[in-house]
Amino acid sequence: MLAKYGTWLQVARGRPRPASTPRHLYVTIKAAVFLLEWYPHPPKVQPKEYIIPLKTHKLTVFLVASITNTISAVKEDALDALKAKVTQAPKPHVTLSASMDTDEESDFVPNVINLEDFELCRGIRERGRMNGKFEILDQNATVKNALVNWEPVFVQFRDANGQLLPVEVSLPPLLDEDDEEAELAAARKGKRKPPADAA
User: Fold this and answer.
1) Whole-angstrom Cα distance, residue 37 to residue 67?
2) What mean pLDDT is reported for the chain?
3) Residue-level pLDDT at 155
4) Which of 40, 69, 72, 178 sits at 20 to 30 Å (Cα–Cα) from 22?
5) How far apart are CA 156 and CA 106, in angstroms?
6) Domains and their CATH numbers in the chain
7) Source organism's superkingdom (predicted)?
8) Rounded distance, CA 141 to CA 71, Å?
């Protein structure tokens, strides 16, 4: 296939068309090479602001920060969000939540008063997946250098003695249970052993 592609590329750059190359394909390749050589793709414009999902427990708040802002400025925005009344409001659908098997303690977001009550962290990834470990973000770093757009930031609270508590976060599964079962069934399909012939 690569050899054939190389032949087509030579044809498109002005060499005569081999008899084995269909005419319509020859014209298409010639046009594609012309567009790639003379009209290169414009560079992607970097956003001037990042959207930062701030996560703790079962709460997600979306912050918007300029890429030139420091992490300390993001932390101030996070403090305002965590002090908002909505985070301490009674849970809606009390009857529904009472009927479901939920852990009340895991829903509780600690109260914060000032910037010393918590730290902002990023999840450490191994092979593209979070491994359950977190690192505290440098407050002097800029948003552009510390994060990528839409990268989640996690809140790590401090106790009354100023000691860091473990990060508490509930990440929803990427697939519904029905989708997971369908994927498992599709993966198992065709892997069954053939039935033994009856003797």
Assistant:
1) 33
2) 76
3) 96
4) 40
5) 14
6) 2-38 (no CATH), 49-173 (3.10.20.90)
7) Eukaryota
8) 6
